[in-house]
Amino acid sequence: MGDPGGQSPGRSTLEAVVTGKSDADVEAAVRQALDHYGVAYGAIPCDPRFADTAAFCQRYGVAPEDSANTIIVVGKAEPRRYVACVVLATTKLDVNGAVRRRLGVRKASFASSDETRVLTGMMIGGVTPFALGPGMPLWVDARVVERDAVVLGGGSRSLKVRLSPDVFRAMANAEIVPSLAVPAG
User: Fold this and answer.
1) Other C-beta atoms within 10 Å of 66: how many?
2) For residue 79, cis peptide bond before it (omega within 30 degrees of 0)
3) Which of 26, 68, 137, 143 is 20 to 30 Å apart from 181, CA to CA?
4) Within 10 Å of residue 104's Cβ, how many Cβ atoms?
5) In angstroms, rounded to a whole number, what is the distance separating the alpha carbons of residues 177 and 144?
6) In whole angstroms, what is the distance from residue 10 CA to residue 81 CA?
7) Inter-residue contact 85 to 93 (CB < 8 Å)
8) CB-CB contact of 128 with 161 (8 Å)
9) pLDDT, one tens digit for every residue, the chain (185 residues)
10) What are the residue boundaries of the structural domains of the chain, listed by start?
């Protein structure tokens, strides 16, 4: 099946990224990636119990419209294909519309927490677009790059990063996608 976005989406199997890396290793990889892109960022340590978006925003005083989530999606056709998507916390990823169509599959869904951990080496609540393995496409909802700054996962449930979303324009695997998400609620 052809790719409507002009790029080959996603990994075809789970084989690639069983990393066995610790949270500290992943966090170091995130910092190294951000340093590579030359982007100024702030590291925000957080209590892992408050890593999920709503709890984090409330606990640390971050506006939800300035918080973004990285979500791994799987196309259900064989071979399975995966993509990382970044959306604002005030929106909902359009998995069964925009994402499914872009993947060129009949069914798509959120990857399970186990799949996410195997693919990225990260737990939900800490997934970041800055330490994904090679070959993982990254689709960023256009609303994200309209913000002055966003807070994203830092690779573990104990770290978030605040930075300019302009970083996505410098990332070779990133594509800015209009209407990847819809307003929440």
Assistant:
1) 16
2) yes
3) 26
4) 16
5) 10
6) 5
7) yes
8) yes
9) 233 333 334 433 333 344 467 889 999 999 999 999 999 999 999 999 999 999 999 999 999 999 999 999 999 989 999 999 999 999 999 999 999 999 999 999 999 999 999 999 999 999 999 989 888 999 999 999 999 999 999 999 999 999 999 999 999 999 999 999 999 97
10) 14-168
For residue 113, the cross-strand partners are none
Give the distance from CA 71 to its chain's centroid: 5
The CA distance from 30 to 23, in Å, is 10
Q: What is the CATH number of domain 14-168?
A: 3.90.960.10
Q: How far apart, in whole angstroms, are the C-alpha atoms of residue 184 and residue 111?
A: 20
Q: Identify the residue whose tokens are 């449930």.
A: 157
**Which token pair is 140?**
């960023």
How many C-alpha atoms does 58 have within 13 Å on its Cβ side? 6
pTM tops 0.70, yes or no? yes
DSSP 111: P
CB 70 within 8 A of CB 181: no
Dihedral through CA 48, CA 52, CA 53, CA 55, nearest 10? -70
Both tokens assigned to 139: 């689709």
Cα gap 46→41, rounded to integer Å: 16
